[in-house]
Specification:
Layout: H1 2-138, H2 142-156, H3 158-190, E1 201-205, H4 210-216, H5 221-230, E2 233-235, E3 242-246, H6 250-266, H7 271-300, H8 307-314, E4 320-321, E5 324-325, H9 326-344, H10 348-356, H11 372-382, H12 387-393, H13 405-419, H14 426-443, E6 448-454, E7 459-464, H15 471-488, E8 496-501
Parallel strand pairs: 7-8
Antiparallel strand pairs: 1-3, 2-3, 4-5, 6-7
Keywords: Coiled coil, Endonuclease, Hydrolase, Membrane, Nuclease, RNA-binding, Transmembrane, Transmembrane helix
Enzyme class: hydrolase
Protein name: Ribonuclease Y
Length: about 500
């Protein structure tokens, strides 16, 4: 028991001694480590100070280099500015010297001008004095002397002068005529176009003879409906497989022809269908007019026209003048005017546009009062056409004086186109004009809805409005129209007046 206590006490004592020894050992090691770390830190601090001093020295050296470079550049810039300033001063001095020299020269020049004026005045005075003395000595004035000299020369060489003047006139006229022939010949040969035109009749080919009976219809209702709606005369005779459409208005004939062709193709030929087809064809004709106008403008190479004016131009496709298609005639005048203008150096664009539009008034001359030239001027002004073009077109019938070269060229081109052999037929034009007058007279009566001249003007067929004209007054209306025709119009033979009232 005691031994165990002793051993236990001895263990505690050993443990205490070991702990004390360990503590002192750790303190010793710690002091050694602290001394080593402090040395390292001191070494690092010393090294850092050395590096910092090196960096500072390098920075100071770099700053000194930059300062030296900047100082050098500033000195160079100052020297350059000084040189520029000196050069500018020299130039200003030179400029001042030149200005002074110019002022001196100007002063000298003015003095010399004044001296020259004085000398000129003195010379004129001396000349006047000399002329006065000569006139006093000779007894005649200068003008009288000049006149006498010319008269003496004229008397001495009268025949030679007259002969020379006539020779020069003849040679000049011959040259002008030759040049004019060359220009016109070149313009004519430069453009050529066919001028075929149906005058008063059109034909429709039939697939068989049986169609004629269907066109006539029961008791003639179909053919009467077609004639009433289109204003033409349908002629069905012994000619095989052919129907003739007669009428002086080309638009009506074309509407009737297309309508009849569509009815034959459709097969349903009866009054209601006829009215429907005619209405559709009338719309197609309006489109054809627009297409014809656009084709004419494209052919002429003209741009910038109002679309409504182009459509109005297309109406001339169905208009004739002395048997000549007005649209084809206008295109011909357009190209001839352009060729003539190019030959003599005039404005080609104005000449061509004036030539194309010179007869535009004929598209409306039966609807508006006035000559086709006056109507054309109003139409072109309405659609904003240039003043030069209006001046070029308005003189082609000499109603207005030609104000420009282009106006003369359009007038010449119009005459060339009209004078071409076979271009115009005066008799046919007069005949068509008389038919138009006949229709206009009948349409002027109150209650008349439509009036068609048929059978070459031997019949005037009148359709009245049933609400305005009754059966009792229908005969009186026909008699009044017949009396007016007899009084105002002159026609060979008799004219049949047919008045129709349909409920």
């Amino acid at each position: 028991m005691n031994i165990q206590v002793i051993l236990l006490i001895a263990g505690f004592i050993s443990l205490a001694i070991g702990s004390i020894l360990g503590y002192f050992a750790r303190q010793t090691v710690a002091r050694k480590q602290a001394g080593t770390l402090e040395e390292k830190i001191q070494k690092r601090v010393t090294q850092a100070r050395g590096e910092a001093e090196t960096i500072i020295e390098k920075a100071q050296e770099k700053a000194r280099e930059i300062t030296a470079t900047a100082t050098k550049e500033i000195s160079e810039r100052r020297g350059e500015l000084l040189r520029v300033e000196q050069l500018t001063l020299k130039r200003e001095e030179a400029l001042d010297r030149k200005i002074s020299e110019l002022e001196r020269n100007e002063k000298i020049f003015r003095q010399r001008v004044e001296e020259f004026k004085k000398i000129k005045t003195d010379v004129e005075e001396l000349r006047a004095q000399a002329e006065n003395k000569i006139e006093q000595v000779a007894g005649i004035t200068r003008e009288e002397a000049k006149k006498e000299i010319f008269e003496n020369v004229e008397r001495a060489h009268d025949k030679e002068l007259v002969a020379k003047i006539r020779q020069l006139e003849a040679e000049g006229l011959a040259r002008f005529e030759q040049r004019a022939r060359e220009v016109i010949a070149f313009a004519i040969q430069k453009y050529s176009a066919p001028q075929a035109q149906e005058l008063t009749t059109s034909t429709v080919n039939l697939p068989s003879e049986d169609i004629k009976g269907r066109i006539i219809g029961k008791e003639g209702r179909n053919i009467r409906a077609l004639e009433r709606l289109t204003g033409v005369e349908i002629i069905i005779d012994e000619t095989p497989d052919t129907v003739v459409i007669s009428g002086f208005d080309a638009v009506r004939r074309q509407i009737a022809k297309l309508s009849l062709e569509k009815l034959i193709q459709d097969g349903r030929i009866q009054p209601a269908r006829i009215e429907e087809i005619v209405s559709k064809v009338q719309e197609e004709i309006i489109k054809q007019m627009k297409d014809a106008g656009e084709a004419a403008v494209y052919d002429a190479g003209i741009v910038g026209l109002d679309p409504r004016l182009i459509q109005l131009l297309g109406r001339l496709k169905f208009r004739t003048s002395y048997g000549q298609s007005v649209l084809l005639h206008s295109l011909e005048v357009c190209h001839l005017s352009g060729a003539l203008a190019a030959e003599i150096g005039a404005n080609v664009a104005v000449a061509k546009k004036g030539g194309l539009l010179h007869d535009i008034g004929k598209a409306l001359d039966h609807q508006v009062e006035g000559s086709h030239v006056e109507i054309g001027i109003r139409v072109l002004e309405k659609f904003g056409v240039e003043k030069d073009v209006i001046n070029a077109m308005k003189s082609h019938h000499e109603e207005y004086p030609a104000e420009t070269v282009e106006a003369v060229l359009v007038q010449s081109a119009d005459a060339i186109s009209a004078a071409r052999p076979g271009a115009r037929k005066d008799t046919v034009e007069n005949y068509l004009r008389r038919l138009g007058e006949l229709e206009a007279l009948a349409s002027s009566f109150a209650g008349v809805e439509k009036a068609w001249a048929l059978q070459a003007g031997r019949e005037i067929r009148i359709f009245v409005r049933p609400e305005a004209v009754d059966d009792l007054s229908l005969h009186k209306l026909a008699r009044n129209i017949a009396d007016r025709i007899q009084e105002e119009l002159k026609y060979p033979g008799e004219i049949k007046v047919t008045a129709i009232r349909e409920n």
